[in-house]
Amino acid sequence: MVGLKRTPGRDVRHYGCVTGSWQTPDDLLTISEFYEKPDPDYARRHLNVEGLPEDTFLTVFGQYVFKPKIFEYIEEHIRLNIRERGEFQLTSCMDRLRREDGFVGCLIRGRPYDIGNPEAYRQTLQEFGRP
Considering only CA atoms, which of 69, 57, 114, 116 is closest in space to residue 95? Predict the structure, then answer.
């Protein structure tokens, strides 16, 4: 299972993105594809989810519950030096797990805090530092 958040099309290039079909509307999604940092055009063509506003997509929220098998896939990518865009990708391993065993996403309500770049990390620390 992975946490998901709604993301506008202009921002999808910064996140892992998913598509699928709702098990429970606006709550649990059966994921049919993971795609790491799509450009907005790809997202608009391939990653729409029924019931979301136009140009809104579901992106990975950074909360994961994995089966232990994921670590075998990660180890295999490292051992075989399998990289995408020069990096080892957790998203590819998640998609393999999805193909073999299924994967569910849960739409998280609340404010997301990003730590994926220095400015976002600084803002997150400031938010948590406020009384």
Answer: 69
